[in-house]
Amino acid sequence: MATWPTEVRRDHEARLLRVLWQDGHRSDYEYDVLRGYCPCAMCQGHNAGPLRFQPPPRPVTAQTVSQVGNYALSIAWSDGHWTGIYRFDFLRSLCPCEECRERAASAASARTEGKGSSGRSR
Ligand SMILES: [Zn+2]
Ligand SMILES: [Zn+2]
Asked: For residue 101, which ligand has an atom nearest its CA?
C-alpha cells in the first residue's frame, strides 16, 4: 500500500472531508463528489470497469466516517447510504488537488489506447 490517512476530519461548514496522509499530502474532498464516486455495487452496478461518477440527486453530508481494517474508510451519508467502502488507494486517486490531477492526466494520456470498450449497461 502506498499511503494511508493519519487524520480524517469532516468540515461541515465547507462540506469537505479533509484527509491528511501519512506521506504528508493533504486532500480535501467535497462530500458530493465523494458520494458520487461511491464504489459500492449498488451505486456502480456490477461491471468491472473504472468507477464512474454518479452525481447524487441531492447534496449529502458525511455523517460518520469509520476505518475498515487497515485499508479503507467506510462513510455513512446523510441520504441513508452507508455501504460504500473507500479504499485508501482509491481515495488517494480521487484527490482533487492540482498536483494529483496533473499526475492522473499524464498517466491517463500515457495509456489512452485500449479505451472505448467500456461495457456500460445503463
Ligand atoms: Zn454506494
Ligand atoms: Zn493531491
From this structure: 2
- Ligand 1 centroid to 54 CA: how many Å? 9
Distance 122 CA to ligand 2 centre (A): 31
3-state helix, strand, coil in the chain (%, to 5): 25, 30, 50
Give residue 61 CA to ligand 1 midpoint distance, Å.
14
Q: How far is CA 66 from the centre of its chain?
A: 14
In this predicted model, what pLDDT tens digit does every residue of 75-95 receive, in sequence order? Answer: 999 999 999 999 999 999 999
pTM for this predicted structure: 0.83
Give me the architecture of the 5-106 domain, per CATH. 2-Layer Sandwich (3.30)
Specify which residues 89 forms β-bridges with. none
